Amino acid sequence: MKLNVLDHGSVELIDFMGSDLRVLQAARVSTASHREIKTEAQNKGLINYLVANKHWSPFEQVCLTFHVKLPIFVARQWMRHRTWSYNEISARYTKLETEFYEPVGLRAPGLTNHQGSVNFAGDDAELLGYLKRSFVKADTRYKKLISGNVANELARVVLPVGVYTEFYCTVNLRNLLHFLELRLHTHAQYEIRVYADAILSILENQIELSYTINAWKSLVLNGRTMSEPELAFVRGILLNSSDFNKDVITAELGPKGLDRMADVFRIAFKDRA
Ligand SMILES: Cc1cc2nc3c(=O)[nH]c(=O)nc-3n(C[C@H](O)[C@H](O)[C@H](O)COP(=O)(O)OP(=O)(O)OC[C@H]3O[C@@H](n4cnc5c(N)ncnc54)[C@H](O)[C@@H]3O)c2cc1C
User: Which residue, judged by its Cα, is nearest atom 52 of ligand 1?
Assistant: First the structure.
């Protein structure tokens, strides 16, 4: 399955080994019950149990290989995930196609979240034109150096991080889910998030992995863990208990403690925004 991402990018599932069944066999070998036939409910229940209790090693028995085409700045973020194996196109041995990522619209720096960005307030047409012209110039210079007999490995230094690259990458399911947790999050940059979205769509289409993906989505992606004071807050509300003391929360979490608590509930009960 191949999905297009951004303007020239894509993610394609090349191969995968294993399934929910392999996870179950790997988990059950510990009690020598890996050859027993179990019911669907038992299988689903065990996968949920493994995810809920962070018994992640059985998920390492499933491996997936993708071919990804993406801008270099997204590849740099992706490759921070050290548990993947990568093979990338070489700009030493190959003259690059020089396709550049042109965002549909620009974004301004985030107001509260320094990692984030927000919609551009003004008219971005002029700056988008400037960005496009920068790519055209870089492309012209790259091709001029190549036609002047400069080696690929040196000519490439004029190319910006918006140029596309491609790689094959292989990862086990445990580390893939960890990647998705980080890169689907709203704190991750939009341009890598859309690749993570594409991978999640691909996984959701693999019926062989449906117990794992559903358990992970419910317990990890859309679930929440709570700190001790947050739990005390919830317990206080549920039991209408006098244990819940605003001063305790403020003392433990600082002056913004109650605001943060409200934030936890907003995220937990509404959305991940
Ligand atoms: C929103 C966001 C912002 C970021 N900003 C920055 C930034 O400004 N600067 C920056 O440099 N990076 C940044 N990163 C990258 C981040 O610090 C991690 O390098 C990246 O997300 C990979 O995560 P990981 O190490 O958990 O994953 P992987 O490298 O895939 O590792 C998976 C897991 O294996 C284990 N592991 C792997 N290697 C080791 C090791 N050497 N020792 C111990 N355990 C190990 C850990 O449990 C780890 O969680 C950012 C990431 C995100 C998602």
Answer: 188
Q: From ligand 1's centre to the CA of 63, what distance in Å?
A: 20
**Which of 76, 79, 83, 85 should be mutated for ligand 1, with most atoms under 8 A from CB?**
83
Q: pLDDT, tens digit, for every residue of 125-180?
A: 899 999 999 999 999 999 999 999 999 999 999 999 999 999 999 999 999 999 99
**Distance, CA of 18 to CA of 196 (rounded, Å):** 21
Amino acid at 157: V
Q: Which residues are catalytic?
A: 183
Domains within the chain, CATH numbers bracketed = 1-221 (3.30.1360.170), 228-269 (no CATH)
Q: How far is CA 79 from CA 119, 173, 193, in A?
A: 27, 17, 14
Q: Which of 166, 172, 154 is nearest to 60 (CA)?
A: 172
Residue whose CA lies nearest to ligand 1 atom number 1:
188
Query: How much distance in Å is there from the Cα of 146 to the middle of ligand 1?
Result: 37
Q: Which of the 8 DSSP states describes residue 153?
A: H
pTM of the predicted model, to two decimals? 0.88
Dist. CA 213–CA 199, nearest whole Å: 12
**Ligand 1 lining (C-beta closer than 6 Å):** 80-83, 115, 175, 178, 182, 187-188
**C-alpha 80 – ligand 1 centre gap (Å):** 6
What is the DSSP-derived secondary structure letter of residue 163?
B
Q: Report which protein residue has its CA nearest ligand 1's atom 24.
A: 81
CA-closest candidate to residue 202, choices 16, 8, 58: 16
78 Cβ neighbours under 8 A, 6+ residues apart:
68, 70, 84, 169, 183, 192, 195
